[in-house]
Specification:
mainly alpha, 0% strand
C-alpha cells in the first residue's frame, strides 16, 4: 500500500468518525462500524497483522504463562517482572474490553 492509499484511508476513517459524532444514533452505528472495519483493514495492510480476537488473546496469554526466558527485542536481555506484568495486563485489558468486563469494579 502506497502513501497516497494510506492517506486516503486515514481521511475516510476520520471523516466517518466525524460524521458519526454529528449525526443521529442509528447512522452513528453504521459510520462507526465502517470506520472500525477500515481501521482493521489499515492495521492489516500496514502492520501485516489482523485485529485481536478473544481466541487469539487467550492463546497469547497461554503462551506467556508457559514461556521461559523471555528476552527484550531491543536489548536481548531477559525482561523484568514489571515488563512481564505489563504484557499480561495489556492483553487482559483488551480481552476484558472485548467481553464488556469492567476491570475497575
Amino acid at each position: 500500500m502506497n502513501n497516497l492509499e494510506l492517506d486516503n484511508m486515514k481521511n475516510r476513517i476520520t471523516e466517518n468518525l466525524q460524521k458519526a459524532f454529528d449525526n443521529g444514533l442509528e447512522e452513528n452505528k453504521l459510520l462507526i462500524a465502517e470506520a472500525s472495519a477500515d481501521l482493521e483493514e489499515l492495521q492489516e495492510k500496514v502492520y501485516g497483522t489482523s485485529p485481536a480476537t478473544v481466541a487469539s488473546l487467550i492463546k497469547d496469554l497461554y503462551e506467556l504463562a508457559s514461556a521461559t526466558n523471555i528476552t527484550s527485542k531491543e536489548t536481548g536481555n531477559s525482561i523484568t517482572v514489571d515488563d512481564f506484568q505489563e504484557m499480561i495486563y495489556l492483553k487482559v485489558e483488551l480481552l476484558a474490553e472485548m467481553l464488556g468486563i469492567d476491570l475497575e469494579n
